[in-house]
Each structure stands twice: as C-alpha cells, then as structure tokens.
Write a structure and sequence with these properties.
It is a single chain. Strand 3, helix 9 and strand 4 form a beta-alpha-beta unit. The longest helix is centred in the middle third of the chain and has 21 residues. The protein is α+β, with helices and mostly antiparallel strands. Strands 2-1-3-4-5 form a five-stranded mixed sheet, with helices on both faces. 47% of the residues lie in helices and 18% in strands.
Amino acid sequence: MHTGHRRRVKDEFLANGLTGMADHRVLELLLYHAIPQGDVNPLAHRLMDHFGSLTGVFHATHEQLMEVDGVGYATAVLIRLIPAVAARYLEDSSSAGEQYFSSWQFRELLFPLFFGQRNELAYLVCMDAKSKLIVTKKLGEGIADTVQITTRKVLEMALSCNASRVVLAHNHVSGVAIWSPEDLDTTLRLKRVLLEAGIELVDHCIFANDDMVSMADSGLLRD
C-alpha cells in the first residue's frame, strides 16, 4: 500500500512539480529518500507541527531536527541538505559577465548565499570597470555576530582578480538588518584603503532573514 502511495506522489510531482501540493506532502516526498520503507506521513506532520512551516523545517539545525520523534541522523542530514543545495544552485545560476548597478541587483545575487545560514558570513563581489561581475568570493565565516572582515584580505581578493569595483556583504544572524558602528567604521576604512589601490567600494549590503540594507542607498558612502 505504501509503495503504491509513494509512486502516486512521485508521479504527481513529475507531472505538475510542486504546484498545488500541500507543504506536508512536499516534506513527505522528501522523506521517502531518507526512509525507504513505511508510512512517513505522520512524521511529515510532526515536523510541520514542531517547526510551524516548511521554511521552519529547512531552517532547523541538525540537533533540533533530531529532537523530533522519528527523525534519524540520515533524515536530518537530508533535510539540512535541501537549503544548502538550493543556495548552491542559485549561486551557480548567477553567471559572470552580467552588469550590476543597483542594490536590488546585489540583493538578488547575494541573497542565496545567506539563505538558511546560522553563522555570520562575509562575501566580496568583484567587478570590472564596467560593473560586470568577475567573481563572488567568501571572505570569512564566524559564529553569531563574530565574523571579521580584514582590510588585507579584502584588498588581496580584489587585486587577485583585477577588480575595479567591489561590494561587501555580510549577514546578521540576530535578524536585524542594520549596520553597527563597527560595521560602519570597517566599511569607511576599507573604502579609503581600496581607493588608494584604484578600487571603488560601491556598497556594503547587510542581510538579515529576508531583509537587506544598503549603505550606499543610505548615503553613508558618499564622499
């Protein structure tokens, strides 16, 4: 009975994608690949009830997932893999050579890199003189709000790819998309150092959950 049900759910996905499929069914479809036999529908409902939504399930840590009755090591790993793969896919789909001029374009480019992250990360977007994307590089990773952006590392990264323009980006896991005094001091110092090397710091974007603030749009990077 369960084999036939699994086949029907899979066929439904192949025919229509996820359109119209309830969130618990989406989760059920995913669980088939971690739990090869048996009825996973009750577990899908327990996960939804415990975390409140499909997004909540995917944002949960490995340890939090393991607290749910019926979730084993392999199941927790598979669930944690989904947002990581989605972020990698979106990252790879943004091709070099595209031109970037506005903060909303930087948001579209960078948001996948911060999606579902529980650690603070920092990235550097490197562009040529015509604002064409060269590469996006990871500057560092910390826990909570402890990532450090060093002047030397930023300068070395920018010079290594012959960038003429760069954008800094990092996230606040606290959920508040606003710069701290330390963020502003670091940004203005980097702007001066990069300018001496002939590189323009275009923006510093700060992400938190689905929100983003731009220092350039806020007028903080004007001469």
